[in-house]
Amino acid sequence: MESWGFIEEFIEKNNLQIPLYAVSGWDKSTNSLIIDSDIYDEKNKKWLIEDANGDLGAPSSWKLYKRFSDMLSVSQDSEAGLVTLSIEHYSPYVAKQLVDLLFEEINRHMQQRKLNKVNSNIEYLRAQVEKTSISHMENVFYTIIEEQIKNKMLAEATPEHTFVVVNQSMVAEEKIGPRRVLIVVLGSFFAVIFSMLVVLVRHSLRVSSKSNI
User: Which of 146, 148, 181, 211 is 20 to 30 A from 36, alpha carbon to alpha carbon?
Assistant: First the structure.
């Protein structure tokens, strides 16, 4: 779920490069994303990210992976067998969309892995049937093949292959950041400390200059 390869494929498949990397804000009144013009030229549909050679282009796979990883939060309750998946984004609607898409992609990915494994097993067993001349072993192989075909049918018929939704994703109604009150309080605190230091430095300089006269 948090691997580079999986996330890279997920981003490319759903064309998420711009919502993930080029957005600098969200306009609540119009429910529209604010694109950073220094990163992406909407008019000409061109990326403006400079690489090590000074060339302009799209963000690298690693940069997109890091950006998505910073947004993604996955926690697990082993005792309850629950996995909590959440994503932070400027737009709560985009955040919900990303959660839903990721959930579907995880199940699809794991379902395909299961099908690939079952198909490989069936091919191997059928090859063994052709090789053996012992009727008893043929019956054993056919029994195992039958079980594998059942597993394949179950995997194909189960969209929620790995994870089953307990609580549907919701659009957040409150911001989780930035915490403006905390920023204002900390800013005021450090401003006071800085002012006091300036006063103390000036006072010590005056005392020092008087003592030298």
Answer: 181
Q: What is the pLDDT of residue 1?
A: 77
pTM of full prediction above 0.70: no
Every domain of the chain and the residues it spans: 4-177, 178-213
Q: How far apart are CA 28 and CA 174, in angstroms?
A: 12
H helices, E strands: number in the chain: 6, 8
3-state secondary structure of 24: strand
Q: Residue 88, SS3?
A: coil
Q: Can you tell me the distance from the alpha carbon of 197 to that of 205, in angstroms, rounded to the nearest whole number?
A: 12
| CA of residue 58 relative to chain centroid, distance | 18
Q: How many CB atoms lie within 10 A of CB 5?
A: 9
- The tokens describing 124, both together, are 């191997």
Angle between helices 4-13 and 92-131 (to 10 degrees): 110
Identify the pLDDT of residue 196: 64
The predicted pLDDT at position 98 comes to 93
DSSP designation for 60 = P
